[in-house]
Amino acid sequence: MAIETLEDVVLELHRINAVKFGQFKLKSGVISPFYIDLRLLPSYPQLLKTVAKFMWQKAEIANRDQLTLTGVPYTALPIATAIGIDENLPVLIVRKERKAYGTGNMVEGEITKGVTRTLILEDVVTSGGSVLTTAKQLEEEGIIVDRAVVFLNREQGGKENLTKEGYDLRSVIGIRQVLDILHTKGKLSDEQYKQAIDFISVPVPQPNAESTPAPAAASLSYTERAAKSKSELGAKLLRLMDEKKTNLALAADVLRSEELLRIAEEVGPEICILKTHVDILEDYEPGFPDRLREIADRHNFLIFEDRKFADIGNTVKHQYSGGVHRIAKWSDITNSHIVSGASSVASLKEVGKPLGRGLLLIAQMSTADANTSAQTVENSLKAAREHADFVFGFICQEKIAKEADDVAFVHMTPGVHLQREGDNQGQHYNTPQHVITQKKGITESNDRRGEAKRYREAGWSAYQSTLNH
């Protein structure tokens, strides 16, 4: 069909599944009843061209002198290119991070400082954080930001936030108009419509351009990050990962000791970490850790006892060093909730640091109804930075340590799966990134070693892509 009006565009976006309804986790961690995915636009040239046309019209540019176009990376780049070709205007490319090779430029394109003007283009705005970050980057390079145009405004405070920062944001369409069109055309039920309207009535906090990731962090190799680590164990892990070419951790949550040892023997060559739960072993004996330690040393992987400490300092200290399992004696890594505060981290450090051990803090979990929050993340970061000689990273769903000095922290991403998006236990799987943790896909396979190799290669490829682009 011909795509001419805004209503046509909305209906076509819905048809190609670029406007979705359900339960979606946003970058902020908030669960949204709808999701707008305009990354599909380049696959539909006519639709892309129409969206670009509407955005250019909304810009209302009278003076084209020294004007350029900048698409917020990366979804808006094709939109900027489409307008640039149609209007014969140059396009600038802003990088998300500074590369350690080539020119090292954050902005690519022909510019004259203090003279070049640019129109920022964005696909969707929620809080306005991405537009703000891009604007600040451009201004640091001496480029004059004229204004910004977004195709779809989620109407959750983005325009207002950017206005406070001195930027003029114009939108082609708001989410309420999108919802009204789909509801009127029978594409959206009354219940879905109400859920979406209720959701957008809550504003998103004002963004802070200073909290964006350190530009150079993503391009550092594991070995380069190891050199910056204050944790002996953290540096050891990062070097091991580069030497062995693996960022795969296996969660071997089985109930029998011999089964766990068999798994360790079979997949040991493919992994950097074996995660255990010795407290669920039905036949645990005091000699078991020594047998596991021998396999780990022979195959060069670290042992991570997933203890999840969550008590006061004196108690966790004894749980770590003593008891039946004597975890600190044989496990390279353990983890802790931050619920008891940084004092419990200090108590664990008293035991583990002299032994060359390391601690992961649980900042986020993969279960859909996890009670971790933004405050949990903030408290974890604070404790980790305070005890960086012992805390070497986090259990999380996304990168949370984003300051320049955080580059050595490891992010362990649980629930990674290469084929499906969720299971019937409320767990959501992520794409390979950071240190990836897998369980069922390997332990329940008839070819554990082969499956582990497949995950290792996928995870390593994802890591390599951060260095080569």
What report would you give on this structure?
Mean pLDDT is 87; it is low at 210-218 and 419-433. The protein is an alpha/beta fold and 469 residues long. It folds into 2 domains: 6-211, 3-Layer(aba) Sandwich (Rossmann fold); 217-468, Aldolase class I (TIM Barrel). Strands 9-10-11-12-13-14-15-16 form an 8-stranded parallel β-barrel, surrounded by 6 helices. A 6-stranded mixed beta sheet has the order 5-4-3-6-7-8, with helices on both faces. It is built from 17 helices and 16 strands.
How is the secondary structure organized here?
Blueprint: H1 6-15, E1 19-25, E2 31-36, H2 45-59, E3 67-71, H3 77-87, E4 91-94, E5 107-108, E6 117-125, H4 129-140, E7 144-153, H5 158-164, E8 169-174, H6 175-184, H7 190-200, H8 222-226, H9 232-244, E9 248-251, H10 257-267, E10 273-276, H11 288-299, E11 302-309, H12 313-321, H13 327-330, E12 333-336, H14 342-352, E13 358-362, H15 374-386, E14 391-395, E15 410-413, E16 435-438, H16 440-443, H17 448-468
Parallel strand pairs: 3-4, 3-6, 6-7, 7-8, 9-10, 9-16, 10-11, 11-12, 12-13, 13-14, 14-15, 15-16
Antiparallel strand pairs: 1-2, 4-5
Helix pairs in contact: 1-2, 2-3, 6-7, 10-11, 12-14
